[in-house]
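Reopening closed ticket. The problem is back. First fold of the pair:
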Amino acid sequence: MAESDGLQRRQFLKATGGLAGAGALAGCTDGGEETPPDELGTDTPTETEASDDDTPAGGDDQTTLRLINESANTLDPVATVLTTEAVKVAQMFDGLVTKPHGSADVTNAIAESVDVSDDGTVYTFSLRENVVAHNGDEVTADAVVYSWERLAGSSNSTSDYVLLGDLGVEHETDDEGNYVPGSLAVEAVDEYTVEVTLSSPYYAGIDIMADSSFVILPEGIVGDIDGYDGEMAYDEFTSAPVGTGPFEFENWSPDNEASVVAFDDYYGDEPNIDRVHWQVLADPNAQFNYAMNRNVDAFPIPNAQYDPGKVSVEETDDIGRQIGTYGPLQNDETADYLRIAGLSTSFMLFNTNSVIEPARKAVAYVMNHEELADDAYKGRQTPGYHMTPKSLWPGGPEAAEEHARENYPYGYNESDIESARQLMEEAGYSQDDPYEFEIINTPGSTNDQIAGNLRDQLSAAHIDLTINTAEFSTLLDREFAGNRDSGLGSWGMAWADPMNVLALLYPPNTQTTNNEGVEAPPLVGLNWTETDASQRAREAWETMQNNKRDTEEDRQARADAIRKLEEANWEDCALINYGYPANERFSYDWVDMPLFGQLGALGKYSDVEIDTDAQPN
């Protein structure tokens, strides 16, 4: 990563004050699934409030897909950082290309075709000629230039680093490394042809262009970049956007509900349903009760209510999706069930400036990854040892298992308290004089269980672990400032490239703001910069960045670098990966929803089908 790319990532985090949720954008969450972030400024409805309203808003003659969602800050595609926002954006906006239902395959959307130059740096998109936005404007090449210029240069953009850094579209920067407006190498060749030039070839380039931040807006709809006055005020657009997708905006009350309706003039296949409605409920118990009252068609089940014995898998398809049923539920219904290993990873992080190396390694020794997956996560997580998900490991899942089994230094699928105790005694600690540090997480029973088990195990290794909790925004403030000793976290990937998650282990991305010369937040607060292993990690990351072509030579260079970077992290235990969360969906049998892939359920709902005779009113 170039220094300017690192700056763009840091600017993204500084702008949002938080990290992205899994699915829509690459980002960090804290893993406390039973208590969501509170920085959104919402009031959590009580269970009574959630269950009193049995009929979501909408006309009786409409076919409505009824869902649960948590609150959101914005509906501007370039400003979204949360899955709750991205799932709505996905219905209202289209990009040039897309990944239907979170699958690995990219298909055309507004683009009719794409040609890539022999050297892999120039993408030429030919646009469909029958695309109109929700305000009636025709979508032309100039709309693409405008939309991507907003992504790069708008002060409201939180994803400029994806375009300028990860994808690497050619552009100019000023003396401070900031993007120079209007310098983006995205050109309207003619009315329906767009040419995009990258600074170097990238094998995952088209995958990144399918990300939700790359969607196309009507040209000039808002005037937050040079050269455009704007047809709408920004506040109006971000709360009632005008898009290009199969559904158009109907309503959004951030603390209550949101809805979209089918767009009559959509260029693609007409949606099967008339409407999508989201009921906003933050508390998992309220969500579950609302679902048990049959007020929604698809819903989550929190860990506290989940029983793995109720899962019946009837089919596993060729990409590993498990398809079956879950039940009986508390209301005696049986839900349709879908599960697939997602592109996300769970870990324990350390501020290496405040937690000594022997203590970090002691945690690695006592942590049984398989037990965590089966017990704390009730089998909803696959045990792991690499930040890189198994499906993206060089050689595939079996190669990942073999590498971990043969090389992980702290015991494979076991808890080795004796080795942890010896390590701490060699460091000068004893039962009478234990080492002390703090773990701080968001509230939630899974986090509490993991932290409590670690505390009990580490007490036998002369470590006194203090457990505290904080709301998400407070926790991030502490971590970014360098005041969080350790904590549990997770990272969701937006495209299938190990670099998307291994950016957390690039040492310059880990420096907290309590270090001299560091003003903006890190990706993750490790302060992993001054060791031999961190230097090897830096070199491995730079090797990956310099070998991004789709050639055997570059693939081998990236594979070697991935292994070196992961092993460097093992050596210092800056992050301890312990598993990979699954993507799951529970839905009633009156709704037929398309299967989603590894990237999750952020696809469009156009082809959902509902048996309205069976769906409760």
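Second fold of the pair, where the issue appears:
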Amino acid sequence: MVKRSRIIAFLLVVILLGSTMGITTSGILKNIKLGLDLQGGFEVLYEVSPAKKGQKIDKDTLASTAEALDKRINVLGVSEPNIQIEGENRIRVQLAGVTDQNEAREILSTQANLTFRDANDRVMMDGTDLAEGGAKQTFDENGAPSVSLKLKSAEKFKNVTEEIVKMAPNNVLVIWLDFEEGKDSFKNEITKENPKFLSAPTVKEIFNQDTVSIVGSFTAEEAQELSSLLNAGALPVKLKEVYSTSVGAKFGEQALNETILAGIIGIAIIYLFMLVYYRFPGFIATITLTVYIYLVLLIFDWMNGVLTLPGIAALILGVGMAVDANIITYERIREEIKVGKSIKSAFQAGSKGAFTSILDSNLTTILTAAVLFFYGTSSIKGFATMLLVSILLSFVTAVFGSRLLLSLWVYSGLLNKKAGWFGVKKSAIKDIAENYDTLDLPTRWDRFDFVKVRKLFFILSGVLITLGLVLILIFRLNLSIDFSNGTRVEVLSDKTLTTERVEAAFDKLNLETDDITLSGDNNEVASARLKDVLSKDEIANLKSSFHDEFGTDPSVSTVSPTVGKELAKNGVIALIIASIGIIIYVTVRFEFAMAVAAIASLLHDAFFMVAFFSITRLEVDLTFIAAVLTIVGYSINDTIVTFDRMRENLTKKKRLRTFEDIADVVNVSVRQTLTRSVNTVFTVLITVVAMIFFGSESIRNFNIALLVGLITGVYSSIFIATNLWVVLKARELKKKGTIKTVKEKKKYSDEPQV
């Protein structure tokens, strides 16, 4: 008898979810803050140094500097800036959506230390003598822009002017901004056509007033900027740029549109695959995956997170990962159906059996995402945050959401004896009376002996690793400025670019480039590297010149040698910590031999990613480290799924007495899990390939690294990790003679023991 109430409940749940998502999605998308790589803007990492001799840089100094920077950002009118204190002497500022990046850079880094000096450079007054908010942009008697200053004390100004008058013929009051002791002087600057001081009026009489006018060759914008700076107050320290990146608004818009398109294509193909291969459960998966995407965006909005380009990539990648849990569960259910169980019993047993595999694989990925977040910077943290949210929500939606929705149909009775709805042919179903175990089911891979050819795979990997090492030593890695130092410039044009035209644009500014590469469908994007780290003034000139030449603001990134070394060191530390964490976890959940085999295969995957980038000369940047750690976390999923099945087969066998027993466990386990391993990797590959062909050029290398890692990952999980376990277990067998593979429960009795 069909329980229609459960089907009605399913329809009501789907309608409720669909209507809720339809009503609220547009609001969520509007609320989510976009990072500077998606809407343009710039990020700068300042190294803080003392402004005066004997000054100490402590927490209070950094806090007051951050507060001063925040006041200046308010002048710019940037909504929701991000200012972070890092370490003992650094401050990171991120301004997404800022329209005039040159102005923002100037306002942030200018110390704005106002001083009134005599002709001998002696300080008469300084910025502390200004009334709060006392600077205003005005016009002089000739209609020229000027800055009016209101002082705290008219008496002090009277005393200063009285002293200056007595210094005739050198009776000038020189107004300076950021006077550098030992370097600047009035005597030197007065001889120049464009002196550094703001103005130097001659004082012929004593002024008993609390206002001063700064008159110079200002534009109205310059006068307004100066008054805003003076009102914001002087910085208590000196700031030096050690890392910066700026993205033109057009770059951000294009990157956003391309990546969203790639995501739609990739997700649509995954939906189609699930429907065709898994039939009705695949339909359930498409519902829960849609809910998963909605929930990720909702939680990210609640977290007030900033969505970056790598973050969108993590969301799209997360869809491929989220479907893994569905595939593992559905494959288990299909196995239970094949041994002759009813749909209801198969659903219960399959869901229960899949849980541990899903839990273990997700926890290892969470571990690497946490390491990425801790050691990553800016956009990489955004990627790690999105990855963490994605993993947690995929677990909830795939394990509990899919199970709930599918259970309503299963328990309704409508699916009874409808194995075809699960993609299982009647000819593949055994009679329940045969008492078949899922571990004994035949597979399409039964003719393959994976252990027998282990030496062939070891030799193949060994040869490739040796060849890779030689090639890395010869070619080395094409390190981006992230891990060395220098400047990277990206240009986007409406028209086709040529190397000669871009090179000529650099020559105008007397800048030498290491190399210029063209990309895009019509070669409308050009990238160039410069060995030198450009100063803020050089960057400002470059951006203005290139805007005139190509019609858009270029993206400019700079990295100092110190920061480059730190980023490289942090990348290595992150990989080591992730590896140690996985060894500990797999040892606790499985056994030490499996942990060693798993880590060896993961390092094998990471090496091939490095070797591939060395041979192809693709640039290794920060996102490459993120890709390696993502593969370390994800690739072990397949290994854990196989190890989980090996654990079941070991429990069934109870003892390993011969090498053939060890080989049999591995062969049977690999055959039984190979289909799901291929399918889980295939769904992630779909999203990665879609992002390579349709996504943003900015993260193409990241996606290529993922592609290489995924392919080598499925190879190493099947042929390397399992066979390494065989070798380790064979050695253990040789020492012990027999290996117990199941823990016998102690029997307790109140009878006396003899």
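Update: turned out to be a display glitch only; the data is intact. The radius of gyration is 33 Å. Residues 249-302 form the longest helix (54 residues). Please close again.
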